[in-house]
Amino acid sequence: MRLLSIITTSLTLFFLLLFLSIHLQAYTLEDNFTISCGTTGIVFDDERTWTGDADTKYLSGGQGRTVLTEATTQDPSVNQVPYTTARLSRSQFNYSFPVSAGPKFVRLFFYPAYYPSFPRTDASFSVQSNGFTFLKGFNASLNADAEATKTIFREYVVNINDGEILILSFTPSQPNSYAFINGIEDTYPAVSVEYRYRIRSGVSSGDWQSWH
Ligand SMILES: *[C@@H]1O[C@H](CO)[C@@H](O)[C@H](O)[C@H]1NC(C)=O
Ligand SMILES: *[C@@H]1O[C@H](CO)[C@@H](O)[C@H](O)[C@H]1NC(C)=O
Ligand SMILES: *[C@@H]1O[C@H](CO)[C@@H](O)[C@H](O)[C@H]1NC(C)=O
């Protein structure tokens, strides 16, 4: 029991320090991106402005082999932005975001649906960022079904060093599978995100393994 309490105290202290260090950075970083994949121009959901990625400004590799399309049918419970449109590919593609140094929250939004020529259950892929693996062999439909949800979002923290660019690599995990993405949000820690981050960090989550 005593050991458990020491571990709990150390963990609490660790997350408190983590929280404080992120808190201090929150007001010095100014870059954030909210990208709706597979669309053009600016689109809105109820809360935010999303930028389409059709002009490939944020893509840095493999974009020529990607397809921009819309889900064949969309569940009425699913928000149109960013979930209607997607960028999909049977080979690797990369996004890159020029960001300032420091911790970045990266959120990935997925709607595992049927897309023309891309069957729902064929999506299985890895996502890597600056040497870290966010998702490995991620079977999107399997995960959505297991979580009894239509859409999936995942959050990560990645530390960007001076002069580094934030890169997100999407790689199909099998010869016959594909990778896709509906939305990407990359932000410095704002207060609400920070709060959620602290709450989330108190529970054990597979996603936390990717933090550094
Ligand atoms: C970044 O996000 C914050 C809130 O999260 C917002 O106030 C600010 O305008 C955004 N900056 C840019 C450049 O989009
Ligand atoms: C994507 O980025 C990774 C890591 O920087 C690089 O090794 C790979 O060649 C890039 N892929 C493409 C298709 O450009
Ligand atoms: C994803 O999981 C589903 C359900 O188990 C399976 O039918 C499908 O083959 C898997 N897809 C890949 C590409 O592994």
From TrEMBL:
UniProt-listed Gene3D superfamilies: Galactose-binding lectin (2.60.120.430)
Keywords, comma-separated and alphabetical: Signal
Malectin domain location: 34-167
Molecular function GO terms recorded: transmembrane receptor protein tyrosine kinase activity
Signal peptide segment: 1-26
Pfam families, per the entry: Malectin
Keyword field contains Zinc-finger: no
Protein name: Malectin domain-containing protein
Originating species: Glycine max
